Please model this.
Amino acid sequence: MRRRTGLLFAAPALVLFGVFVLYPMVTAFSYAFFTWQGTTRGTFAGVANFHALFTKAPFTTDLPRALLHNVLFFLGTMAFQNTIGLTVAMLLHSRPRTRRMLQTLYAMPYLVSPIVIGYLWTLLLSPTFGPVNTLLTRIGLESWALPWLGDPKTALWVVILVSVWQWIGFPVLLYGAALGGVPEELSEAARVDGASHRQTFFRIVLPLLVPAIGTVSVLTFIFAMEAFALPYAFGGSTGNPAGATDFVSLLFYRTAFDSGAPEAIGTSSALATLLFVIIFGGAFAATAVLRRQERRITG
Model:
């Protein structure tokens, strides 16, 4: 009886998931295996659409470049977001009176849409009227007043750092909750035995944070590989300047809606399927490794 009641309450969510997530996903997967003339489906094509992604222009140049940017975006956000988020969480953990207020302040940016964040920072970093370059010039750092989004050398870094700024509240909250679950007696016992604060952190606290680190890492990987709104706000659908902020999701958008090719539905569906396989495979492998690490620590 209890099981039936649980299924009854879960049924609306399952129906919505099936209609708006599962069905479009299966449909897109099936579209990748057919030829297309506009919106008219043709004959079964096998893996021809996937083969086109690796043999035909512009995919032979755009796909490797976009995938590389996704990987660099993940590595950059992972390095800064994890490090800064854990540091901030440690500092807030030692300040119980102001912890909740500061956690809320750090979490506020990710409540705003990434597309709004992107356009806001585009204005702030404008080389003509942006306050960032104006401030740098006034304090004597004219050499730092760069066209941040107009230079291929800095554009991707801007996307990474703005993403870290927006989403830093998530690891702060997650690590804060994980630190709250670390028994204080373990740290006290280590300090009584003569361990320094550094040794206590790396030998006791950090291993107990592995589940939280794993969760942040996997979710950051998924977010980085499917990122669209923030790169689109900064560089448009072509990943300006000169493709420096091009991502796989932008390539999918161009293929499906901007290319005008008669086979656009087939190739874009193949690209979406490829991206899903990369995300699912990477997340599955990372989860397996992290669970093995957790068992080794707890065992």
Summary: Residues 118 and 234 are 6 Å apart (CA to CA). The mean pLDDT is 89.
